[in-house]
Amino acid sequence: MSEKTTNISELGEFGLIDHLTNKFELKNTNSLLGVGDDAAVIAISDEEVMLLSTDMLIEGIHFNLMYMPLKHLGYKAVAVNVSDICAMNGTAEQITVSLAVSSRFPLEALEELYDGIRIACENYKVDLVGGDTTSSTSGLIINISVVGRVKKEEITYRSGAKEMDLLVVTGDLGGAYIGLQVLEREKEVFKANPTIQPDLDGHDYIIERQLKPEARKDIIGFLKELEVVPTSMIDISDGLASEIIHLCKASNVGCYVYDEKIPIDAKTSMMAIDFNLDPSTCALNGGEDYELLFTIKQSDFEKIQSNPNMTVIGHITDATDGIYFIDKNGSALELEAQGWKHF
Amino acid sequence: MSEKTTNISELGEFGLIDHLTNKFELKNTNSLLGVGDDAAVIAISDEEVMLLSTDMLIEGIHFNLMYMPLKHLGYKAVAVNVSDICAMNGTAEQITVSLAVSSRFPLEALEELYDGIRIACENYKVDLVGGDTTSSTSGLIINISVVGRVKKEEITYRSGAKEMDLLVVTGDLGGAYIGLQVLEREKEVFKANPTIQPDLDGHDYIIERQLKPEARKDIIGFLKELEVVPTSMIDISDGLASEIIHLCKASNVGCYVYDEKIPIDAKTSMMAIDFNLDPSTCALNGGEDYELLFTIKQSDFEKIQSNPNMTVIGHITDATDGIYFIDKNGSALELEAQGWKHF
After folding, report:
1. Which of A29, A279, A281, B126 sits between 20 and 30 A of B66, alpha carbons compared?
2. How far apart are CA B268 and CA B274, in angstroms?
């Protein structure tokens, strides 16, 4: 190629996907929704639709085997896919696992990885139904595709948020990012002096948030019991700020998010401060929490308010009002996404 | 890991998959078939089932960008997945594409790749509905998952072959393997002296068999028109011998395959002889032809005999009779699989 070339980092991950897929049109009437939400939607019967999503994890980019045990990696690879189905208000049922490994991995290492996959399958009640296993020229690559289903009247897209809806987040945020900082710190200490044991005492919660995140399948169950169908939903893989922007843009709305409402665990806050980081910034821009962000009608507020897993953090406004973060002093700042940058 | 370790090459690809997945049980009633056929089978409605398959292609293992144009790679990645759905007698409808690329790939290279994917999508009438795009520490990795569907009464498994059935193969075999030999030869010449242009004249057919194989979606259409439902089917990705053995073992039958019946294109034969290779050996053990191997009842023979795309190459026997290759002298040799070995 002697012509002008463009570095892919100029587009960013989402810009790149957009650019590469915008020439593709959906032609099968069964393809109800393609690229652009947490999962694709495929027609299957009068009552239900099928959901399909896929995620690739690359050693050295998404995980570091120096501190990520293979069993945890297997578990996490399943969880992040199940999370995509949860984000459509659906139930994950089947996965396929494609695996590429270099010869430095003995069979016993792969057994560890598949133990983690199996435990996640049992926990989330999904079946491993297929896959591909091959060798790799370098490192470990794992791609999981997940199939789920949801009743037509319960499917939740990113695009359904309406003015006056409440913005709700599950669990607490920023922990996975702070957990990663602790692991990276201990890795550097270990590299400098391998006789020093990693000091992970008291950091169980945040480290588990990073190494063994859970898909919030429980929330989908709560919502069903409470008879609440969110008006829109997305999972938080890239940081709260980035996901709020995705959801608002897909729904063509604006929103106000209140700093003081963002749920952050006390241990996350303390460690953030230790690292000279603002806990809110970790929640907004740290990734991999795999909590759910959704909107509900105001009339549904009473149904969810007593559930400790859900926190109202703001409300939806007209698109022309913009997307604003109201800090603890009451100042409104336009929200910007930092998120994860893989390119 | 200080304990005893086992090298994964000791198990081979299929042994490894078996070993890693045998602890997994199917728990959802919708999971009708898991690992072990060309695609998984998922219940969706009274009339139809859904098919799901996945394939990972790794630079340096499955393709070499020195002679594989990115557009062809994109096309082939889709075709091999569609082929898996064809092998279940189904129709592919949706794909997801996961892509990992290192920064040495400019945007224009990825556009080439996606052009190939798009042309294949249009050709096979499948929709790109999702994916994942990330960076890679080395080279290009592409994982495609495919969803298809088939009427319940038309689904064809590997396991349905019965004694007296006829063994049928589509198209011609060995071409993709010989095409690869030509490309490898010219690569070596080029590496030794980059001023010498590759000599690919007259090798269009076999090179296209390697670089741009087609899924035999047309055959699935012919079978429908002819009202023939094969009793068993598999696609030929690893070489005829390996696939015959898979099919016979899954069906618990034996078979006789006749050397003189195996369809080999004249150009494939000539080039094989140029390379001092036996053309039949190329057909039996060369991979990547992506033709279909299936069995039909004898009573269906009249329906297919005038179709030039299908050749009867043998017949099914009792399992105790074994799996035999009858050479041109009439000698019976037990069939052994060489196939592709990635580990």
Report:
1. B126
2. 10
DSSP type of residue A232: E
**Counted domains in chain B:** 2
In a domain, A341, yes or no: no
Whether residues B73 and B213 fall in one domain = no
Q: Does A93 lie at the interface with B, CB-CB under 8 angstroms? A: yes
What residues of chain B, 18 to 37, have a C-beta less than 8 Å from chain A? 19-21, 23-28, 30-31, 33-35
Give residue A206's domain range: 158-334
Cβ distance of B107 and A343 shorter than 8 Å: no
Percent of chain B with pLDDT over 90: 77
> Does residue B12 form part of some domain?
yes
Its pTM stands at: 0.93
Exposed, middle or buried, B187 (CB in 10 Å: 0-12/13-18/19+)?
middle
Within a domain: A279: yes
Q: Give the CATH number, domain containing residue A243.
A: 3.90.650.10
| Shared-domain flag, residues B100 and B207 | no
- Shared domain for B141 and B179, answered yes or no, is no
Model pLDDT for residues B273-306, shown as the tens digit of each residue: 999 999 999 999 998 999 999 999 999 999 999 9
Largest CA distance in chain A: 63
Q: Tell me whether B145 touches chain A (CB under 8 Å).
A: yes
Q: What tens digit of pLDDT does each residue of B149-208 get?
A: 999 999 999 999 999 999 999 999 999 999 999 998 988 888 888 887 777 778 899 999
B6–A108 C-beta distance less than 8 A: yes
CB contact under 8 A, B54 and A130: yes
The shortest CB-CB distance from B145 to any of A3, A24, A145 is to: A145
Partner-chain residue, chosen from B1, B7, B135, that has the shortest CB–CB distance to A343: B135
Asked if residue A323 and residue A306 are part of one domain, the reply reads yes
Q: Measured between CB atoms, which of B9, B31, B100 is closest to A93?
A: B31
Residue A285 has pLDDT above 80, yes or no: yes
**Cβ within 8 Å, pair B1-A26:** no
CA distance linking residue A250 with residue A159, whole number of Å: 5
Q: Does B130 contact A at CB distance below 8 Å?
A: yes
With contacts defined as CB-CB under 8 Å, which chain A residues touch B145? 52, 54, 96, 145
- Residues of chain B contacting A39 with CB distance shorter than 8 Å: 130
> Is there a single domain that holds both residue B143 and residue B163?
no
B221 and B208 inside one domain: yes
Task: Let me know whether A182 and A146 are in one domain.
Answer: no
With residues binned 3-state (H G I as helix, E B as strand, rest as coil), the percentages for chain A, rounded to 5, are: 40, 25, 35
Residue B1 — pLDDT band, cuts 50, 70, 90? very low
Query: Phi first, then psi: what are they for A101, rounded to 5°?
Result: -135, 145
Tell me the chain A residues in contact with residue B340 when contact means C-beta distances shorter than 8 Å. Answer: none
Whole-angstrom Cα distance, residue A200 to residue A184? 11
d(CA B193, CA B16): 41
